[in-house]
């Protein structure tokens, strides 16, 4: 089994490296390997600016965002014991987007307002989501989450309807190095925390009563993982916007490939999520050059059918069936 897992890790790393190399070269202008070596000594050239000021920040940002969203989804699924629990469909990301928009309008003077307000929005949505019996009923959880998501999306559209600039689908277009460094710092902190807390996610495979019998602090574990997942999701939303389905597609595929042990599942999801987001963004910006398809739209096209198939096949998760 360990050899089997090792092959999958090796495969996703190879895919990741190959996609990064391709993403550096493709775009409105093709910059081949030979030209890449040349521009290293030509910092004033147009190709140098294209690669180092436009493509590299976008590539790094998409890698961090994909890894963060995949891990956030895996953490939510561990806590809720539900294969389609994910911040993007449970209202966490849309609440963060709405609060971020409110911060732009109401407190434009506040330093770091986008991340702070997005985090506040995510925590508010999480508080609403976990009230009552949602934690014990996977179907009620999804219904409440979808309703929350629709509510905050509607509020965002209502607030932005009077603005001159429309709210666009989340995209990595025009990502700056400042955005990239912010994502890198926030994302790496959250991903490191997730790797350290991976054994806690394994505990939640057991029933609460069994965990309490052996002295495991169930509430502490559950809320730590939920808050960490929320932090990862809203950090992406604060900089890039809400991107759906990464946290559903990647962890569910990862379970089939490397198993259910979160100490293996989380690092694999991190790598696979990074690859998926980069591949989706690279395809979206090259398929209709010089225009592009946003990352959010690409993931909706990929993730929507995946969720439909997942639910129709009725796969179980931690003893709960999805169909």
From TrEMBL:
Subcellular location: Cell membrane
One Pfam family per UniProt: FecCD
Membrane topology: Multi-pass membrane protein
Residues passing through the membrane, by range: 7-31, 59-80, 89-109, 115-134, 141-160, 180-202, 223-250, 262-280, 292-311
Keywords for this protein: Cell membrane, Iron, Membrane, Transmembrane, Transmembrane helix, Transport
InterPro entries according to UniProt: ABC_BtuC-like (IPR037294), ABC_transptr_permease_BtuC (IPR000522)
CDD domains reported for this sequence: TM_ABC_iron-siderophores_like (cd06550)
Broad class of the protein's primary localization: membrane
Family designation: Belongs to the binding-protein-dependent transport system permease family. FecCD subfamily.
Summary of the function given for this chain in its UniProt record: Part of the binding-protein-dependent transport system for heme-iron. Responsible for the translocation of the substrate across the membrane.
Protein name: Probable heme-iron transport system permease protein IsdF
Naturally occurring in which organism (per UniProt): Levilactobacillus tujiorum
């Amino acid at each position: 089994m360990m050899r089997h897992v090792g092959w999958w890790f090796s495969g996703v790393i190879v895919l990741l490296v190959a996609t990064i190399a391709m993403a550096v070269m493709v775009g409105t202008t093709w910059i081949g390997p030979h030209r890449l070596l040349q521009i290293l000594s030509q910092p004033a050239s147009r190709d140098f600016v294209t690669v180092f000021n436009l493509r590299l920040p976008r590539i790094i940002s998409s890698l961090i965002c994909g890894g963060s969203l995949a891990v956030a989804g895996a953490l939510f699924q561990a806590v809720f014991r539900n294969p389609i629990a994910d911040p993007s469909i449970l209202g966490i990301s849309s609440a963060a987007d709405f609060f971020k928009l409110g911060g732009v309008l109401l407190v434009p003077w506040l330093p770091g307002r986008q991340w702070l307000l997005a985090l506040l929005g995510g925590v508010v949505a999480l508080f609403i989501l976990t009230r009552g019996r949602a934690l014990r009923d996977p179907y009620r959880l999804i219904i409440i989450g979808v309703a929350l998501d629709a509510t905050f999306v509607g509020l965002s559209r209502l607030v932005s309807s009077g603005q001159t600039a429309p709210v666009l689908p989340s995209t990595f277009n025009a990502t700056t190095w400042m955005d990239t460094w912010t994502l890198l710092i926030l994302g790496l902190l959250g991903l490191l925390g997730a790797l350290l807390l991976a054994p806690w996610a394994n505990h939640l495979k057991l029933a609460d009563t069994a965990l309490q019998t052996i002295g495991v602090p169930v509430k502490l574990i559950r809320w730590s993982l939920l808050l960490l997942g929320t932090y990862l999701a809203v950090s992406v939303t604060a900089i890039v916007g809400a991107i759906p389905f990464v946290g559903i597609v990647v962890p569910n595929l990862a379970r089939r490939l490397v198993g259910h042990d979160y100490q293996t599942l989380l690092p694999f999801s991190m790598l696979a999520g990074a690859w998926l987001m980069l591949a989706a963004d690279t395809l979206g910006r090259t398929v209709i050059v010089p225009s592009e398809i946003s990352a959010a739209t690409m993931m909706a096209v990929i993730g929507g059918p995946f969720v439909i198939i997942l639910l129709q096949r009725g796969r179980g998760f931690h003893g709960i069936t999805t169909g």
